Amino acid sequence: MSTPLPARLRRALPRPTRRRVVTVAVVTALAAGAVGWAVWPQPKAFSTADRMVTIRSGPDGDQPVDLDTRLYLPKGASAASPVPAVLLAHGFGGSKESVGSQAEEIAGQGYAVLTWSARGFGRSGGQIHLDSPDYEVRDASRLLDLLADRPDIRKDAAGDPRVGVVGGSYGGGLALLLAAQDPRVDAIVPMITWNDLARSFLPESTGKPPTEGVFKKGWAGIFFGSGGNAGPGGPAGTAPGGTGTGQQSADQQGAGQPDPGAGAAGTGPGVPSGRAGADPACARFAADVCRAYLEIATTGRASADAVALLRRSSPAGVLDKIKAPTLLVQGEVDTLFPLAEADANARGIAAAGTPVRVAWYTGGHDGGEGPQSDQDRTKFLTLQWLDHYVKGSGAAPADSFTFSRIAGFDALERGLVATGYSIRDYPGLAGTANRTVGIAGPPQPIANPPAGNPAAISSLPMAGRLSSLLDGVAGDLAGQHARFESAPLTEPMDVIGSPTVSIRAASPTGEAVLFVKLYDVDPKGAATLSNGLVAPVRLTGLPTDLAAARPVQVTLPAIVRRIDAGHRLRVVVATSDQAYATPAQPTVYTVGLGGDAVTLPTATGTPIPTAASIWRWALVGLLAAILVGLVVVVLVARHRARRHNRSVDPAYADVPLVVKGLRKEYADGFVAVKRVDFEVRPGQVVGLLGPNGAGKTTTLRVLMGLTQPTAGEIYVFGHPLVPGSPVLSRIGALVEGPGFLPHLSGLENLRSYWRATGRPVEDAHFEEALEIAGLGDSVHRKTRKYSHGMKQRLAIAQAMLGLPQLLVLDEPTDGLDPPQIAEMRRVLKRYATDGRAVLVSSHLLAEVEQTCTHAVVVNKGEIVASGPVDEIVGESPSVQFDVTDPATARDVLSRMGGVHVLPDGDGALVVDTNGTARSEVVAELVRAGIGVDRVMPRRRLEDAFLALVGDNSRGSGDR
Questions:
Q1: How many percent of the chain have pLDDT more than 70?
Q2: pLDDT tens for residues 171-211?
Q3: Residues 6+ apart with CB under 8 A from 346
């Protein structure tokens, strides 16, 4: 009766002593505590308070508006221990909720953080004026008054709080405009924002004013749509702008409040925007903003008044008034506010002598927050800036310029990886050097589609990285673009800034709207438009003949891109783009190059270490140290093995193989080979025989170095056989079946194998090997299409490459048909010439008998017979008789005393005479009238094999 499992477990487990119980209890408690600490919500280092506040702003500062605010106050802040503050503004379409996580991060660093939903958004009242100095900017100034009234906020003077302003996109524009308008601001960090709102929505890349710009209808529609949805009860949506490193979801909740005196169409004092009486075309936009949008969207052009309205909400005109140290963070993946906007802000602020620093990262309105390494870098720069200029702690931040570039894909994090770089002095958009690359192409006619339909798609707002997938799908349309290309680059280049190119154009209408793009084309022809950025151009006064056209220089959007050697540059001039408004009248332009080169700004930065990169390098260093250690151990082991085994035993110098006292025992005590001794001499074909599990395959595995023996010695031409021994090159082997690379042909597999040996190709003897394989034209087919027999023949040919002096084959006829087996028999006999030898393991005893000169019989891990095949077979008592009447002869002989007719004679009459003279047996058959044609001894290896191993032949078992 078996013992119950619980009882067996109790006996198997250690006896519970007092020490063991205490130890287990302590370890369990510590583990539980660690897990609990990790999962238990940690107390926040700050408190939050929501408050709806009413302030007064407007042109005269007397119009009330309700703003929904939230204050994050660090624990311990008090009148006795006041803290510095940060005003954190959200992006367009967002609310105070949009910046919640960023507010918590900053508050966690010891700042009081005040967030709010800007007028027209979330639960705040009022209408949207696009960061108007009279409205949104004055609203923010009133919020500074609220901070100044709190005793727990640090002051520079009475009514002057110690405060920094941070914001992205819409919030970033507010930070710049507030710093210019309110001198109490101590530092600002504007992110992914604009310099000139008119130029942002009406860009023109040859230097024309916004009144001549090309309307960016895609982004303008998103802006106007998200602002329209921001009204009370409106649906939540996604809008451009956010916390400064990407767009945020809008928080459209609660009821709006009236904006007295705003003058929106259909509204008046006490009538909230978005409710009955409001103009549905304007939603929560102020009337002047709404009129400007409707005008531009209808005509595709901006009037001087519309441009003036947008510029009132632009930092461009007030940069000289900004005295607060400024950190400008701008996204490289941004078709709304590209890098040129931050560059203009940087130059204007620096001209006034204000400290300014610029940082670019691989995100933006189209690219989001970017990879984690970029997020970490921009957060560090932001806090470093605030700590020094607002909190007053830490050394002054460097004024170096930083940027980043996508370096690859992190399989562990499943996201893109960006590498940051630093340059001592900000180079602007011109780089630190220029490189010209020649481009060429004939003048080409291109068609302007009616009303811009169909149109090319260069970018997808808020999904700019997808633009790399557009080429060949919905990118440049046939007939609507011209291409000009360079030769392959001879060396790589790092483009940092705005490339320039010169074009010419002719138009039957005298005008043309064009879109110029710069593609990176790899050697396979795949073209990539960096971040979907294009240069819109409006040309006027054009001739009808291109020969009369004057060159016009086009400044392309600034990019950060490494262009590898072997890649080509492609300049594309297109007539349409889904993101822009184009002339409705269909026509055909002619475009050509205005010069023979494109100019590219270049720069070389110093890589910025990150926590991830430091850990990666540390891990690489650790792995390298381990690898070096392993290499040293292997080299020392090989050196010792070779040092101790360089001598050649003269007794075996001319013997291909000597096995002495071989034993293989596994760790669990299983003995696969007890003791094996045999030799393979020149000219011999030796068969290694034995029943399944006798130890044949284990012996071959030890011989080929696939496993180490427990005891014994193996010599090859007198050299002790050790792993890595040079003498192994004199052995060809097929052990444990063939293995080939399925995507390569048979011939390619043979060549690849030979190259791996490092020996000269002329020593391979491919012709002989292929003749042996007999695959014909199939040798050029991929091996994944081979049958098992074809793979076996190819494996034998591989073993014979180089004509090794010792050939070791395990079941070489497996999978071969009878004619191929017969041919293999002849091949092995021919091979064992000129001092060569063959060791073959097979279960086909008839083939061994016909092929091998010698045999080694193994049973239960030991040799039971070895020597020439003839000697192992020996004299057989059986005799085969070829007679005219086998049936009658069988009856006659069965009546003879001592003579026994064997039951299985393969159709012949096989007799065990048991000492009776063969002549007497023949005479008896003749007396019975039976003709005897031939008498011959019956000698079979199978008989000897069965006699040696018996019926109970199951060995100790191979592994």
A1: 81
A2: 999 999 999 999 999 999 999 999 999 999 999 999 999 99
A3: 326, 328, 356, 358, 426, 428
Q: How far apart are CA 462 and CA 218, in angstroms?
A: 11
What's the rounded Cα separation, in Å, for the pair 559 and 568?
16
Position 638 scores a pLDDT of 59
Residue 797 located in a structural domain? yes
Give the DSSP H/E element, type plus range, for residue 189.
strand 187-191
* Helix, strand, or coil (residue 729): helix
The tens digit of pLDDT for each residue in 430-453 reads: 999 999 999 999 999 999 999 889
First to last CA, the chain: 33
* 13 and 84 share one domain: no
How many CB atoms within 10 Å of residue 263?
13
Per-residue exposure over 215-234, b if at least 16 CB sit within 10 Å of its own CB, e if not: bbbbbbebbbebbbbbbbeb
* Interatomic CA distance for residues 156 and 165, integer angstroms: 16
Domain extent at residue 466 = 434-607
Question: CA nearest 477: which of 569, 577, 593?
Answer: 577
pTM of the model: 0.62
How far is the C-alpha of 723 from the C-alpha of 704, rounded, in Å?
Answer: 9
Name the burial class of residue 477, with classes exposed (0-12), middle (13-18) and buried (19+) by CB atoms within 10 angstroms of its CB. Answer: middle
* For residue 445, cis peptide bond before it (omega within 30 degrees of 0): no
Task: Give domain status of residue 480, yes or no.
Answer: yes
Number of residues written out for the chain = 959
Cβ-contact 377, 402 below 8 angstroms: yes
In this structure, the answer to whether residues 769 and 843 fall within a common structural domain is: yes
Going by C-alpha positions, the residue among 848, 916, 837, 849 that lies closest to residue 879 is 916
| Pair (674, 801) in one structural domain | yes
Q: Does 421 reside within a domain?
A: no
416 in any annotated domain: no
Per the listing, tokens 């221990």 go with 81
CATH number reported for the structural domain that contains residue 188 in this entry: 3.40.50.1820
Is residue 765 classed as helix, strand or coil in its secondary structure? Answer: coil
Quote the strand ranges of 461-499, DSSP E: 481-485, 493-497
Q: What is the CATH number of the domain that holds 528?
A: 2.60.120.260
